[in-house]
Design brief:
By secondary structure, the protein is of the alpha/beta class. It has a single domain, classed as Rossmann fold (3-Layer(aba) Sandwich), CATH 3.40.50.620. About 40% of the residues lie in helices and about 10% in strands. The chain is built from eight helices and five strands, in the order ααβαβαβαβαβαα. A five-stranded parallel beta sheet has the order 3-2-1-4-5, with helices on both faces.
Length: about 230
Amino acid sequence: MDRNASPDFPPSCPAARGGLRHAFYRAVHAYLLIEQTELACADLAVLCGSVKTTPAIAQCGAQLFHDGYTNRFIVSGRVKATAQETEAEMMRRILIEHGVPDHSILLENRATNTQENIVYARRMIMQRGELDQIRTIITVGNVTAGRRTMMTTARRWPEVFAMHATGNKFPVAAQDFHTHAEFRRTVLREWAKIAPYQANGWLKEVDIEAINTMARALPQPSQHTPTP
């Protein structure tokens, strides 16, 4: 499947109609929309703000905390989520409202894109002298950018074993993205980014099955609950 294809390819190309179009959508969903990998207990969760999806991302992070997967967070994002709050500030507030202790949250208020989310989060940990202590992380981001977030992490923070979870602002499940016009447009724009971003050296391909296998072998919350 050509990831350089125009985002308008499925609805406008006659060859993509009917069965071919649905096959294309299934391929896009399977490759791009990594809703959640297998999870294990992690040293840190990095929450990547995404404007209108930011509340869903924060709520996912709070659920990870309550399920025992992690007790430490970096919330990252300088973009304004509201007139009063950056993405990072909104996520911090929502985490606290959902019972995550304030001392468990580090605020990263500079990043404006996914590359910077990961680079600045890693730099924050490095500046605290804790890089060797962070071996496993869970990134949490927009469902439309699932694979790109994982590929960015593999490129920019290669020392860690990274799992992934997502927030979804849309009223339909990710597998049904093609039934919602805005969701479909967003996903197809995301699809078109992958090849040029790889060509620029910004992404490293990831093996989702290998990640899932390794995550299943790591401690689970029932075996190891992080200490607050």
